[in-house]
Design a protein that fits this description.
binds adenosine monophosphate; 19 strands; 30% helix; D-amino Acid Aminotransferase, Chain A, domain 1; alpha+beta; 4-stranded parallel sheet; 9-stranded antiparallel sheet; Dna Ligase, domain 1; 12 helices; Rossmann fold
Amino acid sequence: MISPGKTLGVLGGGQLGRMFAHSAERLGYRVHVYEPSVDSPAAEVSAHSVHAPYTDLEQLEAFVRGCDVVTYEFENIPCEPLWRLEHAGLFHPKWQILEVAQNRLREKTWLRKNEFPHVRFAECEAGGDLAAAIRSIGLPCVVKTADFGYDGKGQLKVTDEATLARAVSSFAGQRAVVERWVDFKCELSVLVARSSAGETRCFPVAENIHTKHILDFSILPARVAPELQQKALALAEAIAERLGLVGLLAVEMFLTDRGEILVNEMAPRPHNSGHWSMDACVTSQFEQHVRAVAGLPLGDVSMSSPAAVMVNILGDAWKWSGDKCVGEPAWAALLREPRVHLHLYGKKEPRPGRKMGHFTVTGTDITETLERARRLKAALHA
Ligand code: AMP
C-alpha cells in the first residue's frame, strides 16, 4: 500500500489529471505531473510538474524515480519509453494495457481474440486496399485511423460510392480500421476499478449522448432494463480481469435494438462519462483511481443522488464573432441554480470543440433532471 503522504505521478496534464490531482491531494498525497506542454490544467494544481517530451528518457526517468507510483490520464503516450523505464519505478496500469487501448486495431483484435462482443471490423494496412476492406464489411460502415483517434477524430462514415472514394483518398498511406455501422439504440459506458489485490468495483452504467462524435450528456441511471445493465457491468469487469488491470478502465459500448452489447472503445484512465461521480456518487472516479493505483481499499460506488446528468461545456459555449472569441458563457444561469455543480478546467483559450468544463445536475427523477440539464445548457449558450 502506498500510504497517504507519498507521491503519485501522473503522465499527462489535461483536465483528467487536474481532477485526479484534486482527489489525490484530498487524501493527503503529493501529485507530480509530467506533461509536454506548458500551462497545463493539471500542472496548475499539482505540487510539482515537469514539462518535457514523453520521449525524453532522462527527464522521464528522473520523474518516475521521484514518484511512488506512476499512472496516466491520457492514453496516447508512446509505450517505448515506458517499457524502457519499467525497472525505474511502479506503473499502474501496466504499459501493455495502454498499448492495446491506444490503437484501435490492436484494441479490436484483442477483443476478438478474447471473445468479447465487438463491432465487426476489417483492417487495412498503410498502402493496403481500403476499398476491398470496405466492401468486405459492406455499407454503411465507418473508417477510422488505427492510431491516436478519439472524439471522432480521424473517422469517416461511408454510405455510398462517393464517400467510399473520399475515404480511399483521405486515408491513403494510413493504417485504418473499417467498422460496420451500428444503428445503436443508445451508447453506454462502464467505469471499472481494479486494485492490485484483484478487487473490482464498477460504477453504475452511464447512458451517453454524443453530438458530432463528442460526449454531450451522460445520464445516470441509464434508461435501460436492469438485466442489460447487469450485462454491461459484467462485461466491463471481465475485461478488466482479462487485462490484469490495476487502476481504472472505461469501457464504451453500443446497445443495439436486439439487446446486444458491443464494445466500442476502452480507455485505461478516468473518463469523461464518469465525471458525474464527483457530485452524485459516494466515491468519485478520480478518488477511485487514486485508491486503485495506491493499493487502498476501493470506495463505495453507490449513487448519492437518485438521478444525475453531466453536460460537457465546450468552447462553443463562448460568444464568437467569426473566429474571434468575444464573450463568456452566461455562467450566472448555472451558478444561481440549486443542485447544479460547475467544474471548469482553467484552460486559457476557448476553441470550438475544446472541452473547457462540465456541469452536473442532480435530482430525484431522471426525466426531470435531463430536461433541466438541457434547459441549463441552452441558457449557458444564450
Ligand atoms: P470513437 O472515436 O470510436 O469513440 O467514436 C466516437 C463516436 O462515434 C461514438 O461514440 C459513436 O457515437 C460514433 N461511432 C463510432 N463508431 C461507430 C459505429 N461503428 N457505428 C455507429 N456509430 C459509431
